[in-house]
Amino acid sequence: MGKKLKVTLVRGLAGKRESHIKAVYSLGLKKVGQSRILEDNPMVRGNIRKAHYLIKVEEVEDETA
Description:
Elements: E1 4-9, H1 18-26, E2 35-39, H2 42-50, E3 55-60
Antiparallel strand pairs: 1-2, 1-3
Helix pairs in contact: 1-2
């Protein structure tokens, strides 16, 4: 069905720009090493693009088929 993205926070947020921190929080990430599986949509892609150097992104297939 739809694609999903696994997003993992790999770098800390201390000393980073406030807008980048808010982008990471909007993805549901707060601690280093924390992962979330999110729908692939323009809002998620925009936040990933904004804070790309803080996170790791993997595409995963939707198992609910």
